[in-house]
Structure formats: C-alpha cells, structure tokens
Amino acid sequence: MQENHKIKRFLSEVTDMNKLDEILKIWVTQTMDEELRDELSQTLNDQYGVKRTTGKGLVVRFIRPILVAAASLALLATLYVVYQNSVTANTLAMQHLESQTLKHPGGLKGVAKSDANRTRGILAFNNGNFEKATLQFEKIALPNEEDVHYLGLAYLKNGEYQKAIENLKKSTSEVSRFREEANWFLSLAYLLDDRDKDAIDQLEQIGKGEWRFDEARKLLKKLNN
Amino acid sequence: MERKNFGLTEASFGQMVVDLKVNDTRFFQKVFLEQFKETLNYIKREYGASQEDAYDATMDALLDFRKRFIEGKLKYGNLRFLFTKMSTQIYLQHKKNRQPVIEDFESLEESSNEQVETQAPESFKMAWQSLGANCKQLLTQYYYGAMRMTEIAKHFSKSPVTIRKQKERCVQKLKDLMLEIH
User: Each residue of A126-157: pLDDT tens digit?
Assistant: First the structure.
C-alpha cells in the first residue's frame, strides 16, 4: 500500500522536484545496491573463493548421488567429444546461439523521443520473450539503427531466420556501430537457414581481433571440410 | 596508519571516494574484497555465526561503507577497525531481530532505520532498465554517488544549468517509462 502510494506520488504531475528527488534517491540506491551486491558476490566467488554457503555438509550427506552425477558427467563428456567430431556447422551455430545470453542495454539516447513500443520491446527482449519483442519492435514508428539491429536479433532468437537476415544485414555496413556483432549473428542466421555459401562469405568478413574471430574460424573450417 | 586503512594512503583513499561518486567501484572492490574473508571469519570465530549470516552481515557493511564514503561520513582513520565493528554490529542486529545494539558507533542506528525501506518497485526497475545510458549515468551520479550538480557539470564539461535541465528531462523520461509499463 505504501509502495503504491509512493508510485502514485512519483507519477503525479503536481509532485515537486524535491519530493521526486527524495523518492528517486531511495529507488536508485536500492536498485544500484542490488546490482553492486551481485557484482561483489560474483567477484568474491571467482577471485577470492568466498561463497555465501560452504556446502561442506551437503557434500558429506550427498556423497553417493554426487559420485553418480560425476560418473554421468564423465560419460557425457566422452560422448560430447565423440559427437563434436561429427557435428555439423549448422548444429554448432545453434549451440552458439543458444549459449549466448542477449540483453538489450536500453535506448542509447536517454532523452530521445519516447516510444512505448520500444520500451515494451526492450523489456520483452530482456525477459527472453523474443516473439513479443519482434511484435513490439516492428511497431516502432520511427525505428533507429539500434531498433533494427535488435529486431534482427529477436527474429534470430525466435527462429525466424529469413527475417533475421533481412534486418541484421542493415547493421553490417562499415559505419555501423553494430557491425562486429551483426557479422557474427548474420553468419549464424545464414547457417541456420541452410545458406552455407552466404555463411562462408559472412564469416570471412570477421577480421582478426574482431568479436568472435576464433569461433568464426572454427565454423569456416567445419564448413570447408 | 596505512595498515589500519587496508593499505590505503590518505591520497588513495581520497581517489577511491572520487571514483565511487562516479560509480567506478573497481578500486573499492580491490581494497575491501581482500578484507572480506578476514572479517567474515572473525564474525564466525568470535560469535559462532554461520557462513551465510557472517557473509550477509559483511556484505551489508560493505554496501553501507560505500554509502558513508560518498556522503563524506567516514574519514580516513581506522577503517579496518570500523569495518569489523560495523559488520559485527549488523550481524548482531540481524540476530536479535533488528533490535539495535547501541555501542560506540553512534550513526549505525540511523543507518538501520534507513534499511527498513523495501525494494524499489518492479515498475521502477523495469523503467530503469530501459532508460538510456546517458540518463542512467547522470541520475546514478546524482542519486547514488551523492554528487552535487556543480560536480556533475564539471565532470561532463557542461554548465550546471544544462545539467539541471538534463536531469529534469531524465526524471520525466523515467516517469514516462513507468507510465508506459503500468
């Protein structure tokens, strides 16, 4: 109830800037603290080996299931190595796409004209609802370069490869700030659309030092075999 | 003196606070995360705390330290002692159902009252997520970094009036986004 009251007060046209500042100071601090807490936990875990839970008791208690799981994993790893040698470029492309978590960073120009469809599209995209994201991005009245790029990515994640290709192509020009990303994802889209020759041409556009160069080389090797 | 302050000199302490105000937490993390385990172990050893409780208390103290730094409430002096003290008191507070433990750290009571606030509403979080990078940076510096308009203006090489107007537009943008989400 108190929260609703605060939201109403924040959204009201008559609330003065001092009150808005007071509310925003709390909300921004809570949101940023949450982010910082996550970041610190991650660093503590990765660099200092400090975890919130030790899990020692669990290891002793569940030693048998753990051993069973370890044996299963070892078997899976062996199968994976065997499988990797026979895997197609198309399957590899799908693996790359599925393992990639895509997030929209939010509109680049904070004070640009608002479009509700863009906002809903970004939210859907970041929630992993790519079908809804495509519908919302398509409705943007005056789409900018970023909208088109993320529309392409949403189509790709939603399995609509031809539409993904159509949109991602627009981000591959030399002057586009999405060029490196678009080259990679367009290559995946071609592969998933069974257009291997186009995929090869696109993968060759990824230069040394650019994003996903090593993976691109591996896919090229697989395609040329 | 440096030993009492996690190896920080007075100058590097000042730089760390400046960095924190613009939300650059790298140096802060480097200094304090090295101390984290020692404090956590201290609470476990001295008070018999569980790993989770000691971890949460130390983490809360760390976030509170950041806030106190940017608000100018903590000075260079004996940070090591204060950090351990604060972590311990937070642990004891949690343990006693948030009953404040009044010791010699007078401003802790104020901090515990502030922590009663719930999380930011979901509609705000969603709006914040889709807010542009420039607006986010400016509002973060103002609300989270406790920077004054003049400091932010200097940081962006703009006039305070321009920054003030920009901030007002960003707040309006946040309101618009929240209305769209509702």
Answer: 888 899 899 999 999 889 999 999 999 999 99
CB B17 within 8 A of CB B5: no
Task: Give contacts of B55 with chain A, Cβ < 8 Å.
Answer: 50-52
Size of interface A-B (CB pairs under 8 A): 135
A28 touches chain B (CB under 8 A): yes
pLDDT in tens, A145-192: 999 999 999 999 999 999 999 999 999 888 888 999 999 999 999 999
ipTM of model: 0.85
A97 touches A157 (CB < 8 A): yes
Q: How close, in Å, is residue B174 to chain A by CA atoms?
A: 9
- Tell me if B130 and A33 make a contact (CB, 8 A cut-off): no
Q: What is the CA radius of gyration of chain A?
A: 23
Distance CA B182, CA B173 (A): 14
pLDDT for A95 equals 87
d(C-alpha A198, C-alpha A168), whole Å: 13
pLDDT in tens, B49-65: 999 999 999 999 999 99
**Considering CB atoms only, which of B52, B120, B177 is closest to A119?**
B177
What's the rounded Cα separation, in Å, for the pair A31 and B120?
6
The residue length of chain B stands at 182
